[in-house]
Amino acid sequence: MDKPDKMFLIYYVLHFLASFSNSINNFISWFAMALTDILCIHDLEKAAQGMLSQPILDYFNDGSGDGVALMENISAFEKYKIRPRILRNVSNIETKKRALGSTMSFPLAIAPTAMQCMAHEEGEKATARAAARANVFMGVSTFATTTLEDIKQSGDCLCDNVYMLQLYIFKDRHTTEILVKRAESAGYKAILLTCDTPRLGNRHSMIRNNFRLPSHLQLPNFDQYIGKEKLGDVKYPNTTDDNITWDETLLWLRSLTKMEIWLKGISTAEDVELAVQSSANITGVIVSNHGGRQLDSALSTLDSLSECVKAAKSKDKSFQVWFDGGIRKGCDIFKALALGADGVMIGRAVLWGLTMGGEEGVFKALSILKAEFELTMALSGCRTLSDIKSSNLARKAEGGFFTRL
Ligand SMILES: Cc1cc2nc3c(=O)[nH]c(=O)nc-3n(C[C@H](O)[C@H](O)[C@H](O)COP(=O)(O)O)c2cc1C
Ligand SMILES: CCCCC(=O)C(=O)O
């Protein structure tokens, strides 16, 4: 057994002991985290593998179809290498970033991911506390296993932070309307309207495993709509609307709220142009293919990013272009920013941290990424975010050579 394997064995034993007593659970999570050698997101991923049942693990990790989009989201980062500059005084790196009227500690936010109580009993509440501690904005899924009010309150116990409600539009529009209004009165700052999921992608493992939300958990943000008797079952295709459009739906959504509306799941310049021009006052997009869980064989999100940035910024420099898909390292964040993203979001890295150690695990994931990002900036000669430019990158060209952007 090599050293990391031994560490993870110790961790599993501690976690098993913790399961006998909720009161010492948090302490043991912290202790185990300190004891085991978790140095990077891959360590968290590896550690999380042994801690979940196969259907849940597959639900978190897998992509759709053959998993090509999922794999290419990750491998696309290696098509770019960093061109570091030297002798530039990096003694005082500045990573803070403003969006939605607030400041975050670095240009990274938590992507909305469904059903976090399957990863850890504290689920979304633990994520909210870690996000607040790290001063990282949090996206909350419509399919959360905690109410959107309780999630925000959990983070607010520590400090103010920014929450964004990810929205799926239900066939019953009244249910959606209630959700949007609840988010606004709870103090959420934005709606992230997911646009890449008119139907659920072809997720083989969900079908093979007959995936169901464990019966002790609920989707409490819209209980009244799907009905208690169906809570064990995620009735995605029956409940959500596959007839959402640029004109009707966006204007209807705009009429419900003053919150900022960002569109999540955009990957072409044509759609970004429509978003910028929309009279629904859309203020941002998230270039995303849903972590490779929807359209397999879609372009990797890094390959989509440049055309989306160009389409947005040529029309409106303040229009926000965020990015998600495949971020596992600080240098991935650096590359996405160098290609013009205003910021990035992470999905699975948070779920692995949550699985491994609840709040402490998510905090660990965020801390690792922030430290790696800062180090990448320093070693690339970029003191501020605006120093990160496309000229810091070279892209793999034909013949395997790298040429500068
Ligand atoms: C388990 C899981 C659940 C997700 N649930 C949602 C969701 O409810 N709504 C949504 O818009 N995106 C959802 N996503 C997509 C993420 O918001 C994000 O786009 C993706 O995870 C980014 O890729 P990454 O996991 O490689 O970081 C989910 C992703 C995962 C892995
Ligand atoms: C099954 C509910 C949809 C959650 C989601 O967006 C995802 O699993 O990617």
TrEMBL record:
From the record, what ranges are coiled-coil? none
Q: Which SUPFAM superfamilies match?
A: FMN-linked oxidoreductases (SSF51395)
- Protein name listed in UniProt: Oxidase FUB9
**Residues noted as binding FMN in the record, renumbered to the chain:** 112-114, 141, 166, 194, 264, 288, 324-328, 347-348
Listed transmembrane segments:
12-33
4Fe-4S as UniProt keyword? no
Q: Which family does it belong to?
A: Belongs to the FMN-dependent alpha-hydroxy acid dehydrogenase family.
GO cellular component terms?
Answer: cytoplasm
Ligand binding (glyoxylate): 59, 168, 203, 290, 293
Keywords for this protein: Flavoprotein, FMN, Membrane, Oxidoreductase, Transmembrane, Transmembrane helix
Cofactor(s) in the UniProt record: FMN
What PROSITE patterns would the database entry show?
FMN_HYDROXY_ACID_DH_1, FMN_HYDROXY_ACID_DH_2
The protein's matches in Pfam families, at most eight in alphabetical order, are given as: FMN_dh
A molecular-function term among this protein's GO annotations:
oxidoreductase activity
The active site lies at 290
Residues covered by the FMN hydroxy acid dehydrogenase domain: 33-398
